Amino acid sequence: MGFILLGLFIILMLIGVPIAFVIGIVALLGIFGIPYTPEATVPMKMVNGLDSFVLLAVPLFILAANLMNSGKISEKLINLALAIVGPIRGGLAHANVLVSMMFAGVSGAAQADTAGVGKILIPSMLKQGYDKETAVGVTAASSTVGVVIPPSIPMIIFAGLTNASIGALFLGGIVPGILIGLGMMIFIYILARKRNYPRSKRVEMKKFAKLFFEAIPALLTPIIIIGGIISGFFTATEAAAVASLYTLIVCMFYYKTLKVKDLPKILMDTLALSSLSLFALAAASALGELMSYYQLGTIAQEFFANNVGTEWLFIIIVIGFFLFVGTFMDAIPAMILFVPVILPTALQFGIDPVHLGLIVVITLAIGLITPPYGLCLLLAAKIGDMSIERSFVAVIPYIAIIIVVLLFIAFFPEIAFYIPKLINPGLF
Amino acid sequence: MKRFVQTLEKLQITLGVFFLSIFFIVILLQIITRHLGISVIWTEEVANYSFIWSIFMGAAVMVNRREHFNFDFIIKKLTGVKELTLKIFNDLVLISFNICIFFLGLIVVNEFWNYTWATFPDMKMGYIWIAIPIMAGTMIIYSVSHLINHVQEYKAKEVRS
After folding, report:
1. What is the mean pLDDT of residues B121-126?
2. Which of A3, A221, A227, B92 lies 20 to 30 angstroms, CA to CA, from A81?
3. CA distance A225 to A328
4. Number of H helices, E strands in chain A
5. What is the C-alpha separation between B61 and B139, in angstroms, rounded?
6. How far apart are CA B79 and CA B72, in angstroms?
7. Eight-state DSSP code of residue A250
8. Which residues partner with A190 through β-bridges?
9. From CA A331, how far away is CA A326, in angstroms rounded?
10. 8-state DSSP, A412
11. Phi and psi for B116 in degrees, rounded to 5?
12. Distance (Å, rounded) from C-alpha A335 to C-alpha A174?
């Protein structure tokens, strides 16, 4: 039965049925095949899958990001980033990475960063003589830090699935996120010298101070969010709502870049984007029910115990598997389906759930730029008007950088745990 | 038909945005009341249920806009009648699945209509469960309108060839 369903899954997916529906159809047919389980389990599980307070963080963080883009906060961050790293050769590309890291601190949604930053920086990079490959590649690839640097939607979902501490995951994401950003900037520097990319003039101190002060309200957001969560002032979901409200207030009353009449469109875009991955999640919850009926978690545990004796090989398999799944599935449904399957084995090997979470989240971040379904890649390719194939070739060096950082974190977790332990030793 | 579908989509996304705004505001209310020491127990339940409604309404609208991600490389490779045949088949797959979810959803609604919310005994669980058949029903309408378009294109192509 399992193999027939797997075959059906692959066929339906290949002929172009939307993946979220493929998941639902397989779940429905699978549950038809189980005796004494009513078929109404499928719609019930779809509702139950969404009935979790943690998930409300997803649309709210996307809302915060959309407000930042519409309220032109992204532009202010870009200006500041340009003032800081512009004078380095390849300045616009460096600024692209740096602004993604700043953006990552406000929102947990990477696609919004690609859209907001790409629309401004891809055209200006092309105008200054950068290759299209570099412009599209940097924009797409640097957005992946959005889900690694806290706050992060996938980390919140992972924590909800495994009871790992959200605070520890968030703090653990800081070092890998910065390493990925720095790695990309080093690569850009080498590339920029080779291709003689331009750099901008150093900004005068007075102007720099002005740009910095302008960006302060935006730069405060990460401190409010992370600080609020770690101190227990609010939960991750509440933090997402606070981030949205704060951005809304700053844009409407401080920068005056947003009007009430802009809100309906922002809310509609937010709903549109979040309902895609969350509907896939609802369908995945139904399929997860089927998978737990077949006890895939126990099967995986036995398989790894008998065939894969070592922790490092297990970690490599987990990374390889999520890299593959991430090419065609959104991070959220991928985690809902497969984290429960690998968790028992990971615990048996003595892998800390926070460590596993970082591995899974960084691996799935790569899925944002791998075709056929890499949202950031698709968006950047569209903005730069370049084919998906060429765009993918352009991001390959950046993927290599993320993988190097990922392997470091996977095998030397102490690097990532340095900050969480420093701030709150009680988390471990 | 086209006009009806457009109006329906507009209505549905407005409803989705309405629920999104509700849970946004309710969560803010939850933070404020907690720190003021006022006990408001219903916030989480209201937020969760509004969230479910908003996502299901949004997901249905996305069916009309064909935004749910699918692999298109086989469809892109095909042309003419073959391409349309596959598109028609895929429309039928979505319609069949949603018909199942619609009726199964109605069973759930019937069965659990009179269960009440944990924090609001006056509110029935039926108000939540009914989001499923509404979502599936509207998804059927959108897919049928796609199907009609594809069949019309198919006929036009056949006449030409």
Report:
1. 86
2. A227
3. 31
4. 21, 0
5. 8
6. 12
7. I
8. none
9. 7
10. -
11. -110, 160
12. 21
Q: Omega of the bond prior to A151 within 30 degrees of 0, cis?
A: yes
CA–CA gap between residue A362 and residue A410 (Å, rounded)? 10
Report residue A37 as tokens.
Answer: 């389980």
Q: Using a pLDDT cut of 90, give the percent of chain B over it.
A: 73
Quote the ipTM score. Answer: 0.95
- Each residue's pLDDT tens digit, A256-305: 999 999 999 999 999 999 999 899 999 999 999 888 888 888 888 888 88
- Identify all chain B residues contacting A52, using CB atoms and an 8 Å cutoff: 48
- Give the number of other Cβ atoms within 10 Å of residue A391's Cβ: 26
Q: Do residue B71 and residue A16 have CB atoms under 8 angstroms apart?
A: yes
Task: Determine the Cα–Cα distance for residues A199 and A196; give it in Å rounded to an integer.
Answer: 9
Q: Write the burial class of residue A132 (CB in 10 Å: 0-12 exposed, 13-18 middle, 19+ buried).
A: middle
A194 Cβ neighbours under 8 A, 6+ residues apart: none
Read off φ and ψ for residue A259, nearest 5 degrees.
-115, 160
Q: In this structure, are residues B95 and B147 in contact, taking their beta carbons and an 8 Å threshold?
A: yes
Angstrom distance (rounded) from CA B9 to CA B60: 8
How far is CA A400 from each of CA A101, A187, A234, A348, rounded to the nearest angstrom?
18, 11, 37, 30
Say how many C-beta atoms besides its own lie within 10 A of residue A224's C-beta: 16
Spatial separation of the C-alpha atoms in residues A288 and A302, rounded to whole Å: 19
What does the block give as tokens for A2?
Answer: 């399992």
DSSP state of B124: B
Peptide linkage before A372 cis (omega within 30 of 0): yes
Q: What angle do CA A337, A339, A342 make, to 5 degrees?
A: 115
Which of A9, A15, A67, A368 should we substitute to test contact with B (largest number of B Cβ atoms within 10 Å)? A15
Taking the C-alpha atoms of residue A244 and residue B19, their distance in angstroms, rounded to an integer, is 16
Among A14, A272, A275, beta carbon nearest to B74: A14
- Beta carbons within 10 angstroms of residue A189's beta carbon: 16
Residues 6+ apart with CB under 8 A from A199: A86, A87, A88, A89, A90, A91, A192
Which structure tokens are listed for A419?
A: 């900050």
DSSP single-letter state for residue B119: S
Chain A residues near residue B97 by CB distance under 8 angstroms = 21, 24-25, 28
Judged by CB atoms closer than 8 Å, whether chains meet at A60 and B100 is answered as no
Backbone angles phi, psi at A154, to 5 degrees: -60, -35
Interface contact B26, partner A, CB < 8 A: no
The structure tokens listed for A287 are 């399929």
In B, which residues are within 8 Å of A333 by CB distance?
none
Query: Helices H, strands E: what count in chain B?
Result: 6, 0
Question: Taking the CB of residue A207, how many other CB atoms lie within 10 A of it?
Answer: 11
Residue B44 and residue B122 in contact, taking contact as beta carbons nearer than 8 Å: no
Q: Could you give the count of Cα atoms lying within 13 Å of A383 in the half-sphere of its Cβ? A: 28
How many angstroms separate the Cα of B56 from the Cα of each of A153, A277, B63? 20, 11, 11
What is the sign of the dihedral through the CA atoms of A145, A149, A150 and A153?
A: positive
pLDDT digits (tens, 9 = 90+) for A146-181: 999 999 999 999 998 998 988 899 999 999 999 999
DSSP letter at A254? I
pTM of structure = 0.91
What Rg do the C-alpha atoms of chain B give, in angstroms? Answer: 20
